[in-house]
Structure formats: C-alpha cells, structure tokens
User: Fold this.
Amino acid sequence: MSSGPPGSSAGPTSVEEQDVHDPQQPADEGTRLGRLAATVERLRREVREAHAAADGRALIELAKGILVERLGCNPGEAARQLSSLAEQAGLSQLELAADIVNQAAQDRLTEAASQFVSAATGQGSPAEGGEPGDGRVSVAVRLRTAESGVLAADDTQAVSESLLQHALAPLGATAVAVWAAGTDGSLTLAGAAGFAPGEPGRWRYVPPGVATPARQALVERGTVWFGDVSEAGLPSIGQLPEERGGRVVVPAGTGGRILGVLEIVWPHPLPPQPPVLQRQVEALAELIAHTLEDHPETRWIPRPPDSELLDLANGLHDPALVLRPHLDADGRLADFRIQHVNTNFVDFAGRPRSAVNGALLLEAYPLAAGEGGLFEKIERVHATGEPFRAERMPLTAIIDQVPLTAVANVSISRHGDCVLLLWRVLDEAARVAGLLQHAQRLGRMGGFEENLVTGEITWNGQLFTLLGLPQTAPPIPLQQLPRHAHPDDAVALGRFLRALMHHQRPASTAFRLQRSDGVSRHIRVVAEPVLDVHGRLLGVRGAYQDISAQHWTEVALAATRDQLAHTEQQAAERNRLALQLQQAIMPPTHGPIEAFDLRIAVRYRPAEEEHLVGGDWYDCVVLPSKQVLLSLGDVAGHGIEAATGMVVLRNALRGLATTGAGPAQLLTWLNLVAHHLTEQVTATAVCALFDPETRVLRWARAGHFPPIMLRDGEASELPLIEGVLLGALSEARFEEGSVQLHKDDVLLMYTDGLIERKDRSLEHSQRQLLTVATAEVSSLEQRLDHLLTYSKSDTDDDTCVIGIQLR
Assistant:
C-alpha cells in the first residue's frame, strides 16, 4: 500500500527516489542507457552528414550552376529547385548533385559511375566493400566529391589526401602515392597520404632504371594490378619486408604523354577486381594527370619554334620526319601527323616527298602499327621522353598492295611536343657482302652461324677449306670443338663456350686445331650470341681465322727481341712455371675411374689468373679395407702457402684413411694436423667412405657444402651435419652421416669456386646449382662438364668437382 499523501501516485515522485526504492531499477536503467546510445548514434550520424555536406559543398554549387544555365533561373531559385527535386526523388542534395553533374559532364568519371550501375545489384558492389544501398549513388558521390576536392587543392599533396579520403578509403585502400615521371625515366614523389611519418621522405626520388611497381606501370604504359605485392619482389613506398598487401599502379597522362603514376595501397591481398572498379581507378588517374602538368618534373619543355626544329631536321644528312601528336575527339593520342619532311628525305619505298608530307603516320606507313613496330616505339618516346635507338630495324611500307621492306638504323627523340624520326637505310648489302667475301679470303677467315633451336649449322665455303674438311662433310658444332683441339687448350675453349652460351656475351679465344688430315693449325674463333626480343638465346654466329702464320712469325721474332721483350718472356715463363707447379701438385684430370660398382669422374678448373696457385684439392683412392675414399677440400687463400697446405692435408688424409677409421674420426685427426703441423692453415673439406658390400656411403664435413644427391631426376642436398672449419680450433668434433645408394644414383661434391658470386648469396647460388644439376645428359663426365659451363660463379676461383654414379 502507498504511504504518500492523498492524490499522489503510488510510486516515488523523483528519479532519485525511484533509484532507491523501486525494485524495477535495472530495467529502467537499461532503458536510459539505450536512449543515451541512440542519442549518441544520432549525433554521430549528423556529424558524418555535416562533414559529407561540407566536403560536397563544391559539388552542390556546381550542380546549382548547371541548373541556372539549363533553367534560366537565378541561384536562389536553383537552390530551391535542387532541394525540391531531391525531396521528390528521395535523395540527399549531394546525391542528386552528383547525378546532375554526371548528366552534364559525360566524361570519364561519368563512364566509371555508369558502368558500376550496370554491374551493381541491390546488395551493393563488392568493389565498394560490400556496402548496402544504391551503388550508383555511392560511386557518383565519391567520384564527383573527389573531383571537386582535386580541383580545389593547392598542390599534389592535397590532391593525394583528397583522393584517399573521398574516393579510395571507401574501397578499402589505406594509402595513395602520386609519382611525377621525369623525362629521363626517373620518378619523383609528388604527393602521398596514408603512409607512416617519414616514409614519403625516404621515397622522395627514384632514379631511372630502378624496378618498382610504379616504374613497371610507366614502362608498360598500362594499369598493373598486384594481388600481393610481396610476391612481385618489387620494393615501393610503405612496403615492409614481410607485409602482404594489394597494390594497383596506373599511369596518368594526357594526349598520349605520361605525366606520372597513381599508386594505391591495400593492407591485405587483393583478389581479382571487376572491370567496373578498374574503370574507376583509371578515371581517378586521368583526374590527377591535370594536376601534374605544372609539376617541376613533368612540366612540358617549351616547344621549340617550328623554324628551329625544321632547321635541325633539314641539317641532318639522313631522312627525317617531324611528327606532331594527332588527338581524337576525347583528347587521346590516335596518330602522329607528319608535319615536316627534311630536304634529304628519301622514302625507302620510293615515294616522293609530297606523298608523305602532311599525311598521318599510319596512313603513310600502316604496317608500322604492328606489335613491337615503329609506331609503338614512337608512341613510347612521346609518352616517356626516353630516346630510342635501334640498328638493323625492318621498315615496311605498302605500295600498290605490295609490301616493301628495308633494313635501317633508326633514331627517335622528343623535342617539345614533337617527335623527330630519322633513319639510315642499309641498301648496300650486296656490295658489302662481296667485299666481305674477299676480306675473308685474304684474311684466311671463314664465317659460320649455328641455330641452337633447330640444330642447323651454316658454314661458308672458305671455312671448310680453312679447317681441312671436304665441302660434303658435316659442320662441327661449337660444343664439339674441344674434341678437335689440342688437350692443353681445353680450359681456354671451356671458358669461351661458357661466356658465349651461358653468359650470352661475345667471346673469342685461340687454340690449336688438330685437323683430320694431320695438319695442326693455330686458329682464333670469335663469336656472338643471337637473342630474340625476350633475351632468349636462339643461336650463335661468328668466324674462324687461321693465325698460324702470325704465331710462327712471333716465334721466329722471339729470338731477336730486345731486353724488354726478354723481360716479358721471363714474366711469361714465371707464369708458366707457376701453372706447371699447380698441375704437378694437383693430379691431372684423366678419364673416369671404375671402382667396384662405382663410376667416378673428376674435373678441376684452375683460376683464370694463371700465376695464382689455388688451394682446392681432391682425392679418390681404394683403401686396403676395399672401401673407397672420396675427399675434397679448399684451403683458404692462394699462392705457394695455400698449395703447400693443400699437399699436407691431402696426403695426411690419405695416410690416416689406411687406419680404417670412419669419416668423422678422420676429420678429427686432420683438424689436429691443420692446427699443429701447418702454418695457420684453415680449410674446408668433405670426406666420404663407400662400402661396396652394403652400398652405404658414410660422410662428414668440415665447414664444407654438403654433397648433392641426384635420384629419379631430382636433385637435393644431403642433410646438413655439424662440422667446423679445419684448423680453426685445436679440438673439434665432427658429426657423421650416411646414405644408402641405389642403382643409378649420382652424388656430386664440389668446392665454392663452382657457385660463388659477388652479387648473390651462397644460399641463392646453391639453389641455382640444384636446377643446373638436373640437366639431361648422357654420361657422368658430360654432367660435370655441364656444371662447369653453366655454373653461376664470377669470382675467378679454382674449382674441383667429383661425381660418383652407382651402377
């Protein structure tokens, strides 16, 4: 019952009293909190709407201006009309303003928004982050708001911030960079938003030729999407080493000229995007292109006066064309107008100057539009400003339905907003060929060409005579050249083939040819690789020259040389003696060794500097226990000290192996020898014992690379086991591993001279070696030769390789 006065309610008279006495307090408090949350949410929504209205004020004013023009009313009436139309359509004034501007502009932004409408559903576009509602309104408002922000921005930095806020953040992007493209191919950061402080400063300038995502878009002159930029291996602004995120880079330009690149960053991998989103991104890139026109890096070089450029063209001795960009109705580059033909112009198709001057380039030379052809090169020069030079480029014109082709040296350069094209036709091919034939005969030379794809070899007649072969004999492939040379010249020919076939660079060498008729001649071979447009090796071409007369003349003159020549001869003799000493210390490479069920092959390649005696060593011997000892090592350094230490360790290991100890114990003892019985020698080594009865190979290593196992066409390293450098510690323990060999297994042991490079890590080179080792070859010896030819080393270190194959 109530205890209040008559006429009062049954409950308390205030909220405070209710909180104290009402048993329903929790329910009422929940109602209060719900109302408070609803109020906060309403205020937030109003703030967002206020911000949106402020951001879109310029867009609304633009729509009012369009209504004033179309309806012939004053600004006040236009504002009331806009409000009334928005209310009738159930849209906000900002949304209706975007529609009005789209209808009036009909530009690239309108196209992007319209394409989104065609693909949108009632659930919104995935490209919009899955936002519900009318996709048309979202895209139109965002793009037009971004446009108004860009037009109102004072500099490119403000443009970047406006793009990120209005157009890109709703797409899930977190950062944007605007790059200005220099005429030399460099990139300058003109604006950036969303990156960590200090990051834009680190990427202020990217020199020409540095591979980045923006540079790729500049070179390809097209949009490039990276689903995960970390997989592309291209560094860029804001990218952390382990970060995985999506990126898109879009070239921005006008009239066919690229002014810069728009780079957009997503914090997560980016799945394939629909075409409508791609159109939106390209529309934004076109929008920022206009802001880059006044950037210092992209500002157009003032166009030289026509008279100045024409005087330059007329002063050239080669045919030249002055080309001016020809734009279509949308302002895009469609062709080039031949504005001027110089006085020395001679059309390679035989047409007069009047037939070419003033015409469009693709009308005069329609076949220039072919893929990778002349028009593409001119377009690239006009877009990037980077000059183009090419030798022996085919040029084709159609005259009376007949294609006429000439080979010419071509040069293309940009001058202001014009492009200067000049060429020199190589039309003396027959006369040059005749002169070349006489020169080859007088110089005792013969030319050849070898197609590595089809295996076809072409020799001229002089070459058969030079090498002592009948005209009906099959030509000798370059790879088989060592079979016809003196054995002492095998190393020089190996270097020649490796430089030509693997490194794909011109090479030459001299060797002693042992002809089939018994005559020995001194021959010099010079060759160069033939590559396709993608840099793949198609073949080789070159020449042989008989230098026997020159050689014997030099021998005859050697007896009458003065003291200076005698001093040079003494230096050459010292180098020769050093090389002989190296060969005396290191057993020469013979044919394959047969031991029980093993076939063993060894290759040793000395350093190119012949006076440097290396410390690489190897040994293959059958022990009294009927086990086969296989060892290989590398003493640190070069010279007599390294060679002496190598002899001590090699002979000591052979003697220790007769005790019957295992590989780990042998390396333990050998470490004592290196530490106590040599002059501070350190070395890496690998030691293995093969048991013919069990076919088990036990091995241990001392800081050396593990052997490579080839089994069933796959290559892999044996599991890494512990073992420190020989001579580094007075006492060391070595771990022992074992492997069961199967029939046709191949085991490879090698020193670091095979893979060591100055610009790559050893781990990277080891992975490359595993790929090279799996090449299809017919014998163990050819596999070792293949490894030496195609190895990735560039440190001029001597190299040992041992290969064993179980039959």
